[in-house]
Amino acid sequence: MKLSNFKFKLPAEQVALYPHIEEHTLKSGVTFKLKRPDQCRLMVLHKKSQTIEMYRTDADGNQLKDADGNPEYLRFVDIVNYFDEGDTFIFNDTKVFPARLYGTKEKTDAKIEVLLLRELKEEMRLWDVLVEPARKIRIGNKLFFDESGTMVAEVIDNTTSRGRTLRFLYDCPHDEFKRELFALGEAPLPRYIIDPALNGKRERPVTEEDLDDFQCVFAKNEGAVTAPATGLHFTREVMKRLEIAGVNTAFITLHCGLGNFNDIEVEDLTKHKMDSEQMVITEEACELVNNTKKAGHRVCAVGTSVTKATESSVGTDGFLKPFEGWTSKFIFPPYEFGLADCMVSNFYHPLSTLIMNVAAFGGYDLVWEGYKKALEHGYRFGCFGDAMLILND
User: Fold this and answer.
1) Radius of gyration of the chain from its Cα atoms, rounded to whole angstroms
2) What's the whole-number average pLDDT of the chain?
3) Which pLDDT band, with edges at 50, 70 and 90, does 386 fall under?
4) What is the model's pTM?
5) Domain-by-domain residue ranges, the chain?
6) Is residue 159 classed as helix, strand or coil in its secondary structure?
7) CATH 3.40.350.10, applies to 100-185
8) Which of 9, 130, 227, 242 is the most buried (most CB within 10 A)?
9) Per residue in 288-315, pLDDT tens?
């Protein structure tokens, strides 16, 4: 499989800049808006029958119509109808932190963007970061992040073309330092949302609400610099519906990094190298997932980060093994999955490692046909976009 197999034209207006929003008008004529990520569209791909489902139907299989006589699209909340008691969903419970900071360079006051990646040494306040514009930042430079001048960092090393190691010169208990540091940051939304050059020149400021919108409701373990986006569709209402239906929920942790957004610079995908991401799979998660498989029920992976993690730790016997470490696994077609029976995903950008992961799971031809329909019918792409469910039936 080649890089060019995943090239297509994605209209800028089909990239979602915000979570799904519903408009409601009261009898008084007052209109208000509600964010309802679980009301985005859902497309269902059936692998064995090679069919694609897009519309709601009644108990007899008849297509439902809206008030205007048009077919009703499936909504994400309908996902519960495709699973039975005893099935298990695997979620990634990583937690996004406010990783994007803006500071100024000493003497010149040049504005510098800093994206925190991970803390290297707690006692020394060392952080691995990306800086922009990188050409202006050299070893020995100091960066100031607040008007009072109390949050200051010194560049002590170059790691990559844009990568730097910063030492924060902030003398206080570590918990206080992180609290003050994160208070200066904002949600690390993907560049295709906030950069006018990438989003069709649409204005999209980052707001305080984004810290909640770009966080899964089950997020627990801090360490991600981008959200496991498929999990953003799962509201508390959907999670409760799964619970009532007797569907189990298992949680693994993979701290999503920016490697998923790196450009692939080789046509031969076997030559592309992924960045490493830290992951943890506990004994508890393994027991729940493995018991599900032993009982003959289905295991559903929620998002590409979950398939990456589970495929990094599944044994040759098809059962999940405890794991704590790092993975740089790159999944693309053809690939034989060893664990999950079903998968939920978003609609991803062309040429991305994420769409390749999905195509490997669903089969290239079927997924490609699904993407063609998504483009034709105006589905929304990206982390705040619509969703796809792939079933092995």
Assistant:
1) 22
2) 94
3) very high
4) 0.93
5) 38-96+205-391, 100-185
6) coil
7) no
8) 227
9) 999 999 999 999 999 999 999 999 999 9
